From TrEMBL:
Enzyme Commission (EC) number: 5.2.1.8
PPIase cyclophilin-type domain boundaries: 39-195
Record keywords: Isomerase, Rotamase, Signal
Highest taxon listed in the record's lineage: Bacteria
GO BP annotation list: protein folding
Record protein name field: Peptidyl-prolyl cis-trans isomerase
Annotated Gene3D superfamilies: Cyclophilin-like (2.40.100.10)
Catalytic function, reaction form: [protein]-peptidylproline (omega=180) = [protein]-peptidylproline (omega=0)
GO terms for MF: peptidyl-prolyl cis-trans isomerase activity
Pfam families named in the record: Pro_isomerase
Membership in a protein family: Belongs to the cyclophilin-type PPIase family.
Transcription as UniProt keyword: no
Function as written in the Swiss-Prot or TrEMBL entry: PPIases accelerate the folding of proteins. It catalyzes the cis-trans isomerization of proline imidic peptide bonds in oligopeptides.
C-alpha cells in the first residue's frame, strides 16, 4: 500500500511541475525552445537550435534554469561586430562558471546578424557562460581551414529593435576602471531570461 501512496505522490508532483520545465530540463521535447531576454533597454526573444547545437543549447539552458544570467551586464560592445554578456554582475564581478563545453562551431550555423553564439578563449573548447550577439555578418567567426570558429546556437525571432538599441550605445575603446577594451559607457543590464511557454 505504501508503494501506491508513494507513486501517487510522485505523479502528483509531476503534474504540478511548470510546462516550461521537467525533471529532464527545460522543455525537453522542444527542439527549438524560445527564451525572452528582459533587458534594461527592452525585450527580445531568441530561439535555440537543439538539433545543430545540442551541447551548447543545453549548457545555456542550465544557466537559465539556475537564474544565473539574472542581473548580469553586457560588458563588451564592438559597434558593427558583437555585443557580449552573461559573465559579470553590475559590479563587474565574475559569475560562477559551471563547466567548459566542446566547440560546436562546425554545426552549419553561421555567425550572421542577429544570431547568438558562445564566447570563448583562444582554446576552442573553453566556452562556459558568456555569449554574444552578432551585430553583422561575421564570417571571420565561422570555422575555416585556419581553425575553429565560434558556436552559434540560436537567433533572434522578435525584438530586433532592442538589439539595435543595445548596439547603438556608446562604447569606450579602453575602460580605465576595468582595464578592458570595448566596454559600454553605461553597461546595459540583462535583468532576467524567461522561458517562453510552448505553443
Amino acid at each position: 500500500m505504501r508503494y501506491v501512496v508513494k507513486l501517487a505522490a510522485i505523479l502528483a508532483g509531476l503534474m504540478l511541475m511548470s510546462p516550461a520545465t521537467s525533471a529532464n530540463g527545460i522543455q525537453p521535447d522542444n527542439p527549438f525552445p524560445r527564451l525572452r531576454f528582459v533587458t534594461s533597454l527592452g525585450n527580445l526573444e531568441i530561439e535555440l537550435d537543439r538539433y545543430k547545437a545540442p551541447l551548447t543549447a543545453e549548457n545555456f539552458l542550465d544557466y537559465v534554469k539556475a537564474g544565473s544570467y539574472n542581473n548580469t551586464i553586457f560588458h563588451r560592445l564592438v559597434p558593427g561586430f558583437v555585443l557580449q554578456g552573461g559573465g559579470y554582475d553590475e559590479n563587474f564581478e565574475a559569475k560562477t562558471i559551471f563547466k567548459k563545453i566542446p566547440n560546436e562551431s562546425g554545426n552549419g550555423l553561421k555567425n550572421v546578424y542577429g544570431t547568438i553564439a558562445m564566447a570563448r578563449e583562444s582554446d576552442p573548447h573553453t566556452a562556459t557562460r558568456q555569449f554574444f550577439f552578432n551585430l553583422n555578418d561575421n564570417t571571420s567567426l565561422d570555422p575555416s581551414s585556419k581553425g575553429w570558429g565560434y558556436a552559434v546556437f540560436g537567433w533572434i525571432v522578435s525584438g530586433e529593435e532592442t538589439l539595435e538599441k543595445l548596439a547603438a550605445l556608446e562604447s569606450v575603446p579602453f575602460d580605465e576602471k576595468t582595464l578592458w577594451r570595448d566596454v559600454p559607457k553605461d553597461p546595459p543590464v540583462l535583468i532576467r531570461i524567461e522561458v517562453v511557454p510552448q505553443s
